[in-house]
Specification:
Blueprint: H1 2-13, E1 26-33, E2 36-45, E3 55-63, E4 68-69, E5 72-80, E6 83-91, E7 96-103, E8 110-112, E9 114-115, E10 122-123, E11 130-134, E12 141-152, E13 155-156, E14 161-168, E15 170-177, E16 183-190, E17 196-201, E18 206-212, H2 217-220, E19 225-233, E20 243-248, E21 251-252, E22 258-261, E23 268-276, H3 277-289, E24 297-305, E25 312-315, E26 321-328, E27 337-346, E28 356-364, E29 367-376, E30 380-386, E31 393-400, E32 409-415, H4 433-437, H5 439-442
Parallel strand pairs: 6-10, 7-11
Antiparallel strand pairs: 1-2, 2-3, 3-4, 3-7, 5-6, 5-12, 8-11, 9-10, 12-13, 12-14, 15-16, 16-19, 17-18, 18-24, 19-23, 20-21, 20-24, 22-23, 25-26, 26-27, 27-30, 28-29, 28-31, 31-32
């Protein structure tokens, strides 16, 4: 019992916090032009690549002081995979240029719509939309737009040039064999660039893949985060471990750059690789110090780890309540008592939530094997449970109907055989609804 009190006190004294990211599919550039403050938003829709989806390129020019759109003439050049896709002049209508995209197998890019007879500028009008066809947005990845504002509110301008970098999410599926020869489906969702050279090594129990990347400061300055997701089935026990270590181009990543999500998809674990702008600059400097002055890509590796760090953290989908969970002993075995110790917090402030009603539920193979309903008067509580010999393997701990709100969260672990050497696994965090809902605007 003293151990319980100590852990609850420690949890209360040291609240934990989260960091979030920004941006995907669009970028807004702020400019000072004369006495005006202008925002130009470059956008590709949808943000996730699909062969069937209706794609659009949209530019919006806004006077941010007066909070209204303002008309302009834009000279736009678009690049993808290091190649120029098109370049032309466009006139806004109420500050907006909207171009419908029709990807085709033709080698030539064609624009159709209304064109000014004198200037030959394309004119964007809602009743007569512009259309561009050819090899345009026929894959996901990173797109660069070089934009020159030639006129603003009918006034000619000089040297008003900027670049926008837009990421279109791309999904990949790979089939790889485990050490027993069983086919394992892996998926990658890339929020930045296109992925290549995906490999899984059963010998080292590691994953690797590559992605083109421009390490110049000009490019890095446009990046909030680089985000890659690795998905694989929870039943793939070899890779379901407490933690992972990651590298980029041989440089070890900070622990905060690799997080686990067993919550968003019931049958899958998601491992997030998230590189902030500061992390990318650190990686560039580390490579330079190691003698690599001009890297051309990002080579990711992800290896299994066995370090279990308490508390394990999960949040409700609405992002309101955070659950911190620990257990003793760290390796849970049948026939031996396991003590689950938990606290409830305000997910935004980290403060303890006293008088928190809850349902504590243990689930195996989709079946409820234990349930306790109670109230955590001081913001924390504990549950003792002894698993039987038949209750081995993947296990889910659910916290349901928290504070009577109907909100819930869960954490995954493994009950190891008494004689086994399997490493107990856990879920490090459950993504908040804010993060889940903003996943497509959140990372690029």
């Amino acid at each position: 019992m003293n151990k319980l009190v100590l852990l609850v006190v420690l949890f209360a004294l040291f609240p934990l916090s989260y960091a979030s990211g920004l941006g995907l599919g669009s970028e807004t550039t702020k400019l000072n032009i004369g006495d005006k403050k202008i925002g130009v938003t470059t956008q590709i829709t949808p943000t996730e690549f699909s062969e069937e989806s209706q794609k659009k390129i949209i530019f919006t020019v806004t006077d941010t002081i007066e909070s209204k759109n303002i008309d302009a003439v834009l000279f736009v050049t678009m690049y993808h995979d290091g190649n120029q896709v098109f370049k032309d002049n466009f006139v806004t209508d109420n500050g907006i240029v909207q171009i419908n995209v029709k990807p085709t197998k033709d080698s030539e890019v064609k624009i159709s719509g209304t064109r000014d007879k004198n200037t030959q500028y394309w004119i964007s009008k809602p009743e007569m939309p512009l259309t561009i066809s050819g090899p345009v947005i026929n894959s996901g990845g990173l797109y660069r737009f070089d934009v020159q504002i030639k006129e603003l509110d009918s006034t000619a301008l000089q040297n008003q040039v900027f670049s926008s970098y837009i990421s279109v999410v791309t999904n990949y599926t790979y089939e790889k064999q485990d050490k027993a020869g069983k086919s394992i489906p892996f998926e990658i969702k890339s929020y930045y660039e296109k992925i290549s050279s995906f490999e899984y090594s059963p010998q080292t129990n590691s994953v690797s893949f590559e992605m083109p990347f421009d390490w110049s400061e000009q490019n890095i300055s446009h990046i909030d985060v680089v985000h890659e997701e690795l998905h694989f089935p929870k039943e793939f026990a070899d890779f379901m471990v407490p933690s992972y270590s990651g590298t980029v181009n041989g440089v070890s990543l900070f622990k905060s750059a690799v997080t686990i999500d067993d919550y968003s998809i019931e049958q899958q674990r998601i491992v997030h690789l998230v590189l902030s702008q500061d992390t990318i600059r650190y990686l560039r400097q580390a490579q330079k110090s190691a003698g690599t002055d001009n890297p051309q890509n990002m080579h990711f590796t992800l290896e299994v780890g066995n370090n279990l760090v308490f508390p394990v953290i999960a949040q409700t989908k609405d992002g309101a309540i955070q659950v911190d969970l620990s257990w003793d002993p760290k390796t849970i075995e049948p026939g031996k008592n396991a003590k689950f110790i938990f606290t409830f917090r305000d997910a935004k402030t980290g403060d303890l939530l006293r008088d928190t009603s809850y349902d504590f539920v243990i689930i195996q193979n989709g079946n409820e094997i234990y349930k306790k309903s109670s109230n955590a008067k001081i913001g924390g509580d504990y549950v003792d449970y002894t698993f039987t010999d038949s209750q081995k393997g993947p296990t889910t701990i659910q916290f349901k109907n928290l504070r009577g709100t109907g909100q819930q969260t869960q954490i995954s672990l493994v009950v190891a055989p008494e004689f086994g050497t399997l490493t107990m696994l856990i879920l490090v965090l459950a993504i908040t609804t804010g993060m889940i809902a903003s996943r497509q605007k959140f990372f690029r």
